[in-house]
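ugh ok so i messed up the first submission bc i forgot one of the chains. this is the corrected input, ALL of the components this time, i swear. 329 residues overall. if the numbers dont match what u have on ur side tell me asap before i send this to the collaborators (the ones from the other lab, u know who)
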Amino acid sequence: MITIPERIILANLPTKIEKLERISAQLQGPSIYIKRDDQTGTELSGNKIRKLEYCIREAIDQGCDTLITCGGIQSNHCRATAAAAAKLGLKAIVVLRGHDPDTYEGNLLLDHLLGAEVRWISSEDYRDHRMDIMHTIADEVSAKGQQAYVIPEGASSGIGAFGYFSALQEIVQQEQELGISFDAVIVAVGSGGTHGGLLLAQQLLPTSHRIIGINVCDDEDYFIKAITTVIEESAHYLDQSVTIPTEAIEIIDGYVGKGYAQSQPQELQCIKDLASLEGVILDPVYTGKAFYGLVEEIRKGTFQDLQNILFIHTGGLYGLFPHSASFEF
Ligand SMILES: *Cc1c(COP(=O)(O)O)cnc(C)c1O
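and heres the new structure output, hopefully the right one now
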């Protein structure tokens, strides 16, 4: 048995696994199942809370009372951090990329409602200096006699990845209960911690699922490096060494489309199709692109040897509404 770090319990777990009957029949490929990590909570909804359970436990163990993190203007991760902080009586400072807009919607509205302190930095500073900027804010916090814990983008740190290590353990348990085995687990990749955690578990537990990521920004090379780094960091928390062969990191690149948080008509159509066919709402930034990628790959025959595929719905619902004008009806 592997001992992993302790977590603080915040998410509604285990999340349900449902079969997507009609879309599977329509595509005539493998049976597609969906794991509802969009239902980890309401305020806490999505994949980030699984990772935050481990990060925040570490923060509390270190005696911290302030969480600092960063993300895009509609960051699901910043909103989940703000919600977790409010729930635990901690302070959250979220550093967002861009400019303070006139009206607040989606996750940004929630960041404010949840009492997070919101700070804005330029795209260039975000790209090149976000960690330094957060550490400078942490120094500011400690000068006031408080203690801050810095959570990197997406909580995709070594400790955060344990959220998806335990998610794969949860999936293995559910396979036994449901009497199904999944050949592959498919997930959207944005900062890599979700994929990294799943892969760490796949390597260390007696399971053999393929873990397949569909990136929604950057490219395959970028994520092979990012995921390797996350896993190396996670290994420091374990009493065993971990080496992930590069070929185990399966990224299907080609579905970034117009770029991060920018949609193409076919991706939006895929969101509409799944919603009306199955009653499941995806988001345009992550799950909509990844699910569109999955459907296209099934159409191309990429997964013809597989029987059962599990797609993890990583959340993002609040980020849908600011995109309402992109949809045509
Ligand atoms: C952050 C996010 C992802 C990507 O997870 P990473 O661990 O950052 O790769 C996928 N879906 C949603 C809805 C997200 O908010």
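quick check: Residues 232 and 243 are 8 Å apart (CA to CA). that seems consistent at least. Residues 46-48, 76-77, 154, 156, 188-195, 283, 286-287, 314-316 surround pyridoxal-5'-phosphate (CB under 6 Å).
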